[in-house]
Every structure is written in C-alpha cells, then in structure tokens.
Write a structure and sequence with these properties.
By secondary structure, the protein is α/β, with parallel strands linked by helices. The protein has two domains: 8-186, Rossmann fold (3-Layer(aba) Sandwich); 193-401, Rossmann fold. The chain contains 13 helices and 21 strands. The chain has an eight-stranded mixed β-sheet, sandwiched between helices. A five-stranded parallel β-sheet has the order 2-1-3-4-5, sandwiched between helices. Strands 6-7 form a two-stranded antiparallel sheet. A hairpin with a 5-residue loop joins strand 6 and strand 7 (164-168). Helix 1 packs across helix 8 (172-186) and helix 3 (78-84) crosses helix 5 (109-116). The chain starts with 7 loop residues before the first strand and ends with a helix. The protein binds cytidine-5'-monophosphate (C5P). Cytidine-5'-monophosphate binds next to helix 11 and strand 16.
C-alpha cells in the first residue's frame, strides 16, 4: 500500500501540452488509494477535457469560480477546496502560472485555491527549454521554493516544439514516486520498526475447545495502522481476530496461544525500536491439553490451570534501546495498579483503560485512556474512537522518543 492511500489530492492542471499526461497521473493516484479532485485553468481545457478527468477522478472538475450552466450558478469554494486537500499538486505548471503563483496573482480558481491551500504544494513545471532557462522562470521557481512549495524538476528530452532540452514535465509515474518518497521522508516514524501485539489468545482445552476472552483486536489493529501511516515498519502479532489490515508497511503474524505469541514477540523484539503490547493475553492455560475431545459425563469436570508466561514482563527484563509500552485494563484501584505494572514490568509507558468508564475496554469501538510515563506523569484523554485513541497513543510515543 502506498503512503498516498486515503489521502486527498488536489490536482491543478494548467495549459501546457503535458496536460494530456494528467489522465494517467489521475489514474495512478486513484490506484494508490488516494482521492483526487481536479481544478483546471480555463485554457488547459484545450489540452484535455474535464470529462476525461472527472471520469477518472470520480469527482466533478472545477475551473471557474462558479458554474454558469448550473441552474443556481453554484459557487466553487476555493477556500473549501484548499482546506479539503492533504496535498496539492500543480502539473503541468506553465511559466505563466509559475509567475502568477510566485506573485500572488489569483485571477482564476486554481490560483485562488493555491493561495488558500494550507497543505504541502508540489509543482511540476513544463515548458520549452528556453522558457525554462529564462531568469524569470528560475526566479519564480526559487520564490515558490522559498514559500516551502516543492519542486518536481522538469526533465530533459524531446519537447513539443521539436527542440530537445530541459523542460519536459516529469513522467506521471515519476511524479507519484517523487511525492511518495517526499511524504515518507517527512513521517516521524520513518526507518523505525514497531512490534505490536493485539487481540485475544486461545488456550486449548482439547482439540475443539479453548479458553479465550472478548478482545476484538480493534485497539491493536488501530495502533498498527496509525504507526504504519506515520512511516513505521510494523510487525503485528495478532491472536485470533476478525480485524483486517491492508498496509504495505504492516507484516501480520497470526498466532493462537499465549505461548505462540510469546515466541513470536521474542523472535522480533531485538529488531524493533518500539514495542506496544496491547493483546489480551490469557493469564492461565489448561495444565494438560486433552488429545481427544473430552466426552460429556454426569460428574463435574475440573480443569487445572497453570500460569502463562507474561510476554510484556519478559520483554521488560531483556529490553535494551526499545521503547516498551504496556496496557492495563483495570476494574478498581486503576492508577495504582497501572503504576505498579509500569514499574514491575520495566516499561517506558503504560496505557490505562478502566472498565469503570462507559465506552472503554474490549467490545466497544471507543476507548478512554490515561497514559502514564516512566516518571509517573499522567495524561488523561476523553472518550474517543479507537482510531483517534491510537493516534493519541502514537503521537505521545513520537514525542517521547524524540525528547
Ligand atoms: O498484568 P496484566 O496482564 O494486567 O498486564 C497487561 C499488559 O501485559 C498488557 O500490555 C498485555 O498485553 C501484557 N501481557 C502480556 N503477557 C501476558 C499477560 C499480559 O504481554 N501473559
């Protein structure tokens, strides 16, 4: 999966011959899982039709401040478009638009949107070689870079004029690769490896029965996705769970029992920078597992349980540089219990959720947490979706590891 997956991209098209390549550009963005909206300068419509682009982007294409053909003459809100976007790309950027962007001219919807956009802006110039070389163009490019706009340099090759030289718009696949690489380089967890445990464990009683719990895995999976979106390479060790995750940065390892999870966690722990153990691991397992299905009888049946190994504590005992995070799901004396675990298991931080709080815990889509760090500083958060909680947890970890 691409870092562009789920991202909103505003593509501005100006009137260069390279505009014909934007059909492919839109397709590539859509393929990478991004949502695309297109704005065109009026003159660019002579090079590629809005119909092509609206069909490929699955969104209406705008080019004027209002649509005359519409019955109510709908205003195209450039501020809204600018705020909608996670990233704006202007490709091709003609010398004319470059110069207007550099000077704050906004005599069309694309330029007004550019001035309103708060997101990173990429621009891919395209023009004839002499225009590209002109000091005026160079000055515009430098000025845009000084505004923190990101240049996707033109390449050398055959130009529409028949001349050969620098000025060709970068190829669509190179533009997408450039943006992906650039986004990745800004992500706070790039180059970091994160181990996450999630879900319940099943402890076999016999070949068909087990002792389990109600953990859904939602919290751990949300943390895995958030960590991956922040650029981390994630190893997600999951007990039996219906949760799905599709992200090229996440390697999912499915396990069943606490012992399987212990072995997998130890296999990867030495390679990671951060370990977040959110799984609801069984504390006990049947001492003996029956090889055959246990038959029904009238007499009572007793199953003798033996403790499982505490994965978190065992990692705490051997940790070196790793930032180790545990969870505490408590029903009473919550803070004291969580702080006790933090110290006993040698953690860098613990995430406490109390079953006293409505909407917190296992089966819900929401959670309410308090984070306690090594210095016993407490930070409490409100009731939120597990996705939002995962973001709070990961942002907290990012600040801690960068401190
Ligand atoms: O001590 P307690 O089981 O309440 O601690 C909960 C924390 O310890 C969680 O982070 C859980 O994932 C972890 N844990 C573990 N292995 C166990 C039991 C709990 O990693 N066997």
């Amino acid at each position: 999966m691409s870092v562009l997956s789920g991202k909103k991209i505003l593509l501005g098209i100006t009137a260069g011959i390279a505009a014909y390549k934007t059909a492919n550009l839109v397709r590539l963005f859509i393929k990478s899982g991004a949502e695309v909206k297109v704005i065109m300068t009026p003159a660019s419509k002579d090079f590629i039709t809005p119909l092509t682009l609206s069909t490929l982007s699955k969104n209406p294409v705008s080019s004027a401040f209002y649509d005359k053909e519409e019955e109510n003459e709908l205003w195209n809100n450039h501020v809204e478009l600018g705020l909608w976007a996670d990233y704006m790309l202007i490709a091709p950027t003609t010398a004319n638009t470059l110069s207007k962007m550099a000077n704050g001219v906004c005599d069309n919807l694309l330029l007004a949107t550019y001035l309103s956009a708060k997101c990173p802006v990429y621009f891919a110039p395209a023009m004839d070689l002499d225009m590209y070389k002109h000091p005026s163009t160079k000055t515009s490019i430098e000025k845009l870079q000084s505004f923190q706009n990101i240049l996707i340099p033109a390449t050398s090759g055959e130009l529409a004029s028949g001349l050969v030289g620098e000025g060709r718009m970068a190829e669509p696949q190179d533009i997408v690769a450039f943006i992906e690489k650039d986004i990745l380089s800004t992500l706070p967890l790039r180059g970091k490896k994160v181990l996450i445990t999630a879900g319940p464990t099943y402890e076999a009683i016999d070949p068909v029965r087990f002792i389990g719990n109600h953990s859904s895995g939602k919290m751990g999976f949300a943390i895995a996705k958030t960590a991956a979106n922040l650029g981390a390479e994630v190893i997600l060790i999951s007990g039996p769970s219906h949760q799905q995750i599709q992200h090229s940065f996440v390697k999912r390892i499915d396990v069943k029992s606490a012992e399987n999870m212990y072995n997998a966690a130890h296999q990867y722990f030495n390679m990671v920078d951060i370990a977040i153990l959110s799984a609801a691991v069984a504390d006990y397992k049947p001492k003996n597992v029956a090889h055959q299905k246990i038959k029904k009888k009238d007499a009572t049946l007793e199953i003798v349980l033996t403790p499982t190994k505490d994965i978190l504590a065992s990692l705490g005992a051997i940790k070196k540089q790793q930032f180790l995070v545990g969870f505490a799901l408590e029903t009473n004396n919550e803070l004291a219990n969580a702080k006790g675990k933090l110290a006993r298991k040698n953690l860098d931080m613990i995430v406490l959720n109390s079953l006293q709080d409505k909407g917190a815990g296992f089966a819900t889509d929401t959670n309410k947490i308090t984070i306690i760090d090594k210095n016993l500083t407490e930070s409490s958060f409100g009731l939120k979706s597990k996705t939002a909680v995962a973001k709070d947890i990961m942002n907290y970890i990012v600040t801690k590891i960068n401190a």
